[in-house]
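User: Here's a chain of 222 residues. Predict its fold as C-alpha cells.
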Amino acid sequence: MAVVTPSIAEIFEEAYDRAGLEMRSGYDLRSARRSLNFLLLEWQNRGLNLFMIEQGTTALTAGTAEYTMPSDTIDLIEHQLRSGSGTNQLDSTLDRISVSTYAQQSLKNTRARPTQIYVSRQSTGVTATLWPVPDSSSYTLLYYRLVGADGLANGVGTTPDIPPRFVPCLTAGLAHQLAMKRPQSNNLVPMLKSEYEQQFRMAADEDRERASWFLVPEGFRR
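Assistant: Prediction complete.
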C-alpha cells in the first residue's frame, strides 16, 4: 500500500475537526491559510530540521567582499571556499566570525585568499561577507543553507511543501492555532498545544543526522 500524503484541503478539514469546529465559509479557509503560514514561520525558530537544508554555490568576484544569499535563506550552517576543478579541486573551511570580530578588523580591504566569513541576518535577507576580500575570480563559495518552508499566498494548493513525516505535526499545530482564535474551542487549547509539542518532538527527533560523532577532551587530542 502506497504512502498517502493528505492534501492541504484535507489538512485544513482535519485541523478544524480536532478543534471542534467546521470550515464552512471562504473566511474559514483564509483563516486556516493564515494560521498555516504563521505556523511555518514559527518553525524557523525551532532549530535545525534536515529537510530545510539546501546546498548552494556562489561564484566570487575579485575585489567584492559581500554576497547576497537567495531570498528564502534563514541562515548559513556550513561554508567552504572552493578553488580549482576536477582532480585539482580543493575545498577549504571558512571560519565564521561575529559582527564584533569583523567590525574590529582594521584591514577590511585586504585582498587575498578568503579564510573568514561574516554572516549578517537582516530583516530583508542574509548576506555573507568574506575576509580577506577575494583576490581572484576563480574562487567559489560553497555553502549549506537553512531555508524556510513555502507557505500559501492564496488558494489551498495541493500537498504541503514538507516531508510526509511532518504532516501530523503540521495538522496538530494548525488545530492548536485555530482553537486559540475561537472562544468555543478555548477549552481544547491546552490539549491541542500538548499534542502539537509531542508531534513536533517526534518529527524533529526523527529528522536528525545519523552520522557518528565523538567528543574528545582537549588534553587527549593528538
